[in-house]
Amino acid sequence: MPTSGPERLGPDPRPLDQQFWDPEMQTMGREERRALQDERLRDVIRRVFERPVPLFKRKLESAGITGPDDVKGVDDLIHIPTIVKDDLRRSEAEHPPVGDYRFTDIRDCVRVGTSTGTTGTPTLMLWSRHDIWVEYESAARWWWRIGYRPGQIITHAHPAYLYGGGVMLQGAYEYFGLLSIWVPPPDTDELAEQALRFWMRVKPDHPFTGFSTGRFWEVATKVGINPEDAGLNIPHMPGFGLGKGLPLMTAGAECYAYPSGPCGQKPGAHINEDWCVIQAVDPDTGREVPDGEWGNLTVTTFGRDNPLIRYDLEEAAALLRDECTCGETTIRGLWGGRFKDLLASQGKRFQVNEVESALRKVEDVAKPTLEYQVVKPKRHDAPLVIRVESTSTGDRMDTARRAAAVVKEELGIDADVEVLARDTLPRSGYKATRLVDD
Ligand SMILES: [Zn+2]
Q1: pTM summary value
Q2: CA 145–ligand 1 middle distance (angstroms)
Q3: Which of 39, 56, 82, 424 is deepest in the core (most CB within 10 A)?
């Protein structure tokens, strides 16, 4: 039996057949939860004025909020202007290194990371011990909901070092009680093979899933490993469109890495409302859109050392408030993609993932893994330029015609498809670049 008692890192063990990780918080009455949110929000506002936290103090004062008593609770959030990532970036540039939006000193924190910086200068992420605990507990609720239990073996290939997401995931798995096999991202074939061989020695109970599943699959077949012996499932990541939405899974590591998790019984992901308020906001009015409609994902965190107030992630979210059959009393959120990834061509708006879903229907480009690029449309009336690899030795013009036909059918737009030989497009160990400028 694992040691229990004070000489142990992590949470108290709980019965494996209990339905929720944290029954008290996950099944609390909605009125009681609202009272807790109001109290935690008032505490954040009080700290803005007391510490003070200059960026948020300016925001509050610009809305006529001149003291802590002006905010009674969650209903007052709509009066507070939103902030976006560029505000954080500017704050860090003007008040280096950590900006003027922090609620703690940098030395009160124990972990620092950066965002991936795929879009401009990465922002700095700071966590105190308490903030890490909030994330670990939040992640634990998610994994317990989907049936993970302490004692199981899991694996991931997140980037490490300054990138903050990898160590957060690894730590959260360990806290929960999983044995986590952290393999390197498959940036090169050698690194991918190292991971594959390790999975054959120590087989995860939960096989690898992630952005680079296709990449591992490809290297496995290249070096003569049966992907299934390494526990890999068929690399079929379902595509999604803005119309359908996925369960809301993250609000950015800089804000709240694990704000919610799906239960699988009803659409969306249950939001940890005791630690945040998630709003779907109409950017023109700052008010919430009706339930079920897309608005800007806007997050206010509390109950942590470094909260953010009305942080607009510039991504689409929709909220579902109807009662869930699983018994959890929190509201649920859907995620509809990043607005900056939204493409426009020939009068239609779509995500690059929707192009991917369409291409998956063409067998000779979808196998063994789908490798493609979409050229960002510059003229609205021109066909969408798509490059895709094919292993087929047959007529490439025919493959191109069939690919263009499914894109037309699924997205309603004309495409100019260029079919390339295998291994022509660049590979990536984490998130492949699918959208290119030319
Ligand atoms: Zn549920």
Answers
A1: 0.88
A2: 9
A3: 56
